[in-house]
Structure formats: C-alpha cells, structure tokens
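#lab-general

N.A. 3:47 PM
ok so I finally got the sequence cleaned up, no stray characters, all 106 residues accounted for. can someone with queue access submit it? mine expired

B.Y. 3:52 PM
send it over

N.A. 3:53 PM
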Amino acid sequence: LMLPKKLRLNVAEFPRETKPTASTEYFLMKIRKNGQAVDRVGIIVSTKVSKSAVVRNRLKRMILDEFGRSFRSTDSAGGRDFLLVLKPAAAALSKDKLRIILDKYV
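B.Y. 4:20 PM
back already:
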C-alpha cells in the first residue's frame, strides 16, 4: 500500500529550525501546520540506523503504511506536516510495536 504522492512530504521543504514535537527512543518527530487541506509525512532514515538499504527502505515502507491507515481514518482540521527522523534503535522495530508507538502521536 503506497501513500499517494500528495500525502508525502519532500523533507527538503521542511524548515530545519523547527523544534522537535515528540521524541522516543526510536524516532524524533517534528510537526508543523502546512496550510493545506491534507496531512503529509516525510521520513529521514540515515545510514546510522542501518548500513543496509533494504532495512532502511523496509522501515520507510512500514511507517508510510501506518500513516496511510491513520490519514484515511481521521479527518484532521487543517493540514499538518510530519517529519520523522529515525534513530538507530528503530532498526529492530516490529510492525506491531511501530503501530502502537505511532498511534500515540498521529
């Protein structure tokens, strides 16, 4: 299940000076209003998380899948941009644990 392009955020568009909104042992999340009618998500997974591109891309797909489910199930008033910066501990996350953690913030 791919997230539609209009719901994906180009991370280069996100202002660097934005303060983190939430932080866990697995990721840092920054949220800001985007002035659009839709929520968008961007993900940064560096090689510090895993040297393997397969692992990094699997993490991105899992996160995009979870955001896709939550975006469809809620009607948010005013759009927000979510930027997730993954930490090395995220490489060991299972899909179920990821769902539980993201449900707290989305």
